[in-house]
Amino acid sequence: MIALPGRQASAESPAGVPDSLPVPGRFAHLHPEDGACLMEAAALLSSGRFTDSPAGTHPALAALARVVNDCVGDGARHALWPLAADLADACPAGRGYAPLLVGTVVDAARPVRPESRRLARHGRACRRRAERLSHTPAGGPAGRVADLLWWRGPGRRHLEHALRVLCAAPDAEERLSRLLRHAVAQARDHADGRAPSAEVRCNR
Fold this sequence. Notes:
Blueprint: H1 38-46, H2 59-71, H3 74-80, H4 83-87, H5 97-109, H6 117-133, H7 141-167, H8 172-191
């Protein structure tokens, strides 16, 4: 999604993480012995398969987690490693979830570039779609096709643009780490049918 320079995986496992998991590292890996990104760790916990796109994680949330994993430094990646357990089973079924998540990421990017009309436009579009679909049952093939087309088209483009803005911020590591923690909590709330968590503040 976003090209970044390489960095070696850390040699120690984060505290509180099962010893059976590989050491945290950037990007995708061919084998667990080479390390694992956050989503590869989530896949191992959920199904035992080594992939960065586990079935138990919503594609939009997995896309966010992969970028955050690759953009932050070793210390922040270690601190985020326990989220793998939550990401392993984070796939809210509602049709409004994907635009809600993408809108959250766009809103987090706006304080970095407050003059951006593009971000403002993308945020409004995501909020409108999330509100329109929030009470729509997951249901038939037409809805699934429409959601897939949105995610593979404007939804993914909105997410990627917002993440490029966030990754270029001077305090990108702090913003991205806070955003991912909020997104995981938001997914949990959405899956449980609770009101979404308060909007993450990324301008501190």
